Amino acid sequence: MKIGVMLPLGGEDGPDGGMPGWRDVRAVAEAADQNGLDSVWLADHFLYRDPDGRIYGMHEAWTLLSAVAASTTRVELGTMVLCASFRDPGLTAKMAATLDEVSGGRLILGVGAGWHDPEYEAFGLPTDHRVGRFEEWLEIVARMIRGETVTFDGTYHHVKEAVLDPAPARRIPILVAGHRPRMMRLTAEWADAWNTAWYGAPGEKVAERLGTLEDAVRAAGKQAGSVAPTVGFIVRDPDQPSVPDPDQNAFSGSIPELAEALAAYQKLGVDHLIVSPEPMTPKTVQRIAEARRLMNS
């Protein structure tokens, strides 16, 4: 089982509970790269507005991920997940091919339909038919990065003889996040991996969600295991100050207990575990890496 970590993006992700800077993002990414973890991931948001109206700012994810690619040497680089509404499909495919080249073939293109209305409204984006728009977008992106010349005349998206030149040197893996029936159908049809998140200790809910992937793959007539299951796991380091808004589901056990939790996720058949660390610091990353080494010892 691969293990990766989310990187700070904005809001209160910084080491002092405030906005992280590039140095903070780079420090966490380098800690993952140097401590033997498998991947680093960035969320994709313009902003978050909580129910009380407070706004949390965010850096632009793809720009940060490009910088992370140049600052690391071995970890895979993923988006958790890129919002289809923010970038048109042809541009996204072109960006993916270029970043995969820059990183030496380390990109995992995680994508989703989007959900947070306030950022859509703030930036003038349509909030209607998000999954319908995503369905067209995903087909165009997937076909383009897999080497096709694509002509598509949909309700929301249109391309004519769109092709990636230069083409990607390899098949860039696509990960889709979602759990409702329509999203599961699209996952089985187009994705190489699927994500469900966010959880604390592994349990029945995770196992149930993993079962929905198996059902979707079977319904699509695909071979079992053709879409890799990934899971988002929230881990708190109790030896560091608490983050401003701690997740109530976060796992906060000792390093041996964390190693047991990692092993339990592996036993469930998870292909890639994506950890959201609290706080997002190199020290938390080192703790996760130590638990991973203990799990494998």
In brief:
Helix content is 38%, strand content 21%. It is an alpha/beta fold. The protein has one domain: TIM Barrel.
Q: Can you offer a commentary on this structure?
A:
The protein is an alpha/beta fold and 297 residues long. The protein has a single domain, classed as TIM Barrel (Alpha-Beta Barrel), CATH 3.20.20. It is 38% helix and 21% strand. The strands form 3 sheets. An 8-stranded parallel barrel has the order 1-2-5-7-10-11-12-13, surrounded by 8 helices. Helix 1 links the parallel strand 1 and strand 2. Helix 1 crosses helix 2 and helix 3 crosses helix 5. The longest helix has 16 residues. It starts with a strand and ends with a helix.
Strand order of the largest sheet: 1-2-5-7-10-11-12-13
Q: Helix/strand-derived class?
A: alpha/beta
What is the fold named in CATH at topology level?
A: TIM Barrel
The N- and C-terminal alpha carbons lie at a distance of: 14 Å
